[in-house]
Amino acid sequence: MRYVSTRGQAPVLSFEEAMLTGLARDGGLYLPETIPTLSHDEIAALEGVSYEEAAFRIMKPYIGDTFTDDEFRGIIARAYEGFGHAARAPLVQLDSGHFLLELFHGPTLAFKDFAMQLIGQLFEASLKRSGKRVCIVGATSGDTGSAAIEAFRGLEAVDVFILYPHGRVSEVQRRQMSTPSEDNVHAIALDGHFDDCQAKVKDMFNDFEFRDAVGLAGVNSINWARVLAQVVYYFTSAVSLGAPQRKVSFTVPTGNFGDIFAGYIAKRMGLPIDRLVVATNQNDILHRCLSTSEYKPDGVIPSISPSMDIQVSSNFERALFEAYGRDGAAISQLMEELKEGAFSVSQGALQALRESFDSDRCSEDETRATIRAAHATTGELLCPHGAIGVKVADEHRVAGTPMITLATAHPAKFPDAVEGASGVHPPLPPAMSDLYERSERITRVANDLGAIETLIRDRTGN
Ligand SMILES: *Cc1c(COP(=O)(O)O)cnc(C)c1O
Predict the structure, then answer these.
(1) What value does the mean pLDDT take over residues 75-85?
(2) Which pLDDT score, from 0 to 100, does residue 142 have?
(3) Is the CB of 314 within 6 Å of ligand 1?
(4) Residue 452, beta-bridge partner list
(5) In a domain, 77, yes or no
(6) Is 255 domain-assigned?
(7) Residue 352: which domain range?
(8) Mean pLDDT across the chain, nearest whole number?
(9) Does the CB atom of residue 313 touch ligand 1 within 6 A?
(10) For residue range 250-300, what is the model confidence (pLDDT) as tens digits?
(11) Active-site residue 132, yes or no?
(12) Which of 162, 254, 313 to mutate to test the pocket of ligand 1 (most atoms within 8 A of CB)?
């Protein structure tokens, strides 16, 4: 399988190259040249197999012969062995026809562990073989960073630098990044918003001299291997509820469009998904774009669902690329317009997007009310992100088609918001119960490319 950039100008790469590179050199994102499909029988045969076995069968066509089957099975096994639930991604029923997919049983209690733990093992296997060393730089609104640090801590051939917006992540998120003691991990508090962190990471990737000198590698949600890892739980959950004989829909709390794009890939692979519902918080650029065609960032308003406080949704570029019939030049043009402030999606492309995606937003008050109501009626404690999904799902589900809402984080990751809404304090799982006692290590840095690059060069000796 070969990988092409959404802007059509970067070299075509193998799976391994695309994984190690992250962002393409033309500023675009990598996608497989063709999307493989699973037959009706192959999907039906996923019924009852382990999560790991399903992951192997679903991802195998994308990795080709990068690893032998035994190596790839080993990578998957190591990735998910630290999860606190045998099913890895268990389904819980909320109401008739409405199910919650719990994606928070990984080591940092958010769905990002599914992708990051796999990427950590993929990188290690690949770098061991080549003897190379890489420097991973990522931006986080909280959960990606903790998941990346947890996945790469102590690995031999990797340094990890995570930029997060100072003062804008929850205490649990911050501590998950700042308490690992391994020398190869660096939590960097940047004076700015998540979008500033993300922009700095993009700038570093576009500084080719720096990029090559330090061996930059990206594991943000733009990395194709992350999207791929997330495709798996769409299959496992849908099959548990009767796919491929029966259609299902999904509602996905969305920020960077990575998780929901994985759902779109699952659909393209042949999984009978009826609707994919984008659920946003008050930072609703995706909902506005899907309803009006105009994609216009207008400033982040901090919310109680900080992992979705995003105005520039990087993975949306992949959906646009598909909606524009894989016309890289058209995507480059839109991204140029975005630099001037906004772009408008063409009518044809908007129609293509709406064939798969619905969208809605959820206010802060509605989020709190949903946490309260779900606890009262089901006993489930939702994190604010999951609550946004549940609220939007309730408005979009139709009788006869099961709705699966993705619960993207454990409530204990956002204890203040959850307790404020429900009156119940969500306890951390036992493996993490001493998190508040561990000592922290943080480097504060200005919102300045030069300062960040100097810091990384110093720490890595480049
Ligand atoms: C990252 C994150 C999201 C948003 O996921 P995207 O792939 O960026 O759309 C939602 N909820 C939580 C808890 C997250 O960490």
Answers:
(1) 96
(2) 79
(3) no
(4) none
(5) no
(6) yes
(7) 91-108+224-422
(8) 95
(9) no
(10) 999 999 999 999 999 999 999 999 999 999 999 999 999 999 999 999 888
(11) no
(12) 254
